Amino acid sequence: MNTSTKLGPLRRAFASCQPTLFVSGVRRHLATHHSGRFEVGRCYPVYIHPLSQIVLEHLQVSRADWVMEKGLDRGLTINKDGTFAINFPPEFGGHDDPLNDSGRIWTSYDVDKKQYWLTVYKDTLLGRYPLKGGADASWHTEKWLVEETVDRMIERISEADKRNMAAW
């Protein structure tokens, strides 16, 4: 059984049942049905956790140029638990080569710590950023903190890319 939903090219197409550029204004989104079956012309709801939604909306609205520059406008996977992963495009070779892992950005939930995380892996960079600081923190009131965390992650990725380019 397929445990995640893959969205193809991300673009705005709300009325035509095509995948949208990350998210719309609600937490249910259009994608392939969770069973993995897809019927042409049919839309299926997909749950996105509110913190994942804030991250994706911020990337879409405020950081769209960076997303396009890095090739992150394709390869979004939304998991059943509402988390997501976006894969960086391969730098060399084909997309199906398992040895050609160029990294990813993803959200996750640590059950033991009751903590949501934004994580990035790219080349030599591995970063993990907390999205919610404990059981009493409210994502409703801390949206700007999540957006600031996304911006900090983007800065780290850009710095690592510059260091890697200088090393070449």
What does this structure look like?
By secondary structure, this protein is α+β, with helices and mostly antiparallel strands. Helices cover 26% and strands 24% of the residues. A six-stranded antiparallel β-sheet has the order 1-4-5-6-7-8, covered by helices on one side. A two-stranded antiparallel sheet has the order 2-3. Helix 1 (50-61) packs across helix 3 (143-167). It is globular and about 45 Å long.
Give me some keywords for this one:
single chain, 168 residues, alpha+beta, two-stranded antiparallel sheet
User: How many H/I helical runs?
Assistant: 3
Which structural class do you get from the secondary structure elements?
alpha+beta
Largest sheet: 6 strands, antiparallel
Low-confidence stretches: 1-34
Radius of gyration: 16 Å
Order of helices and strands: EEEHHEEEEEH
| Order of strands, widest sheet | 1-4-5-6-7-8
Would you summarize the structure shown here?
By secondary structure, the protein is α+β, with helices and mostly antiparallel strands.
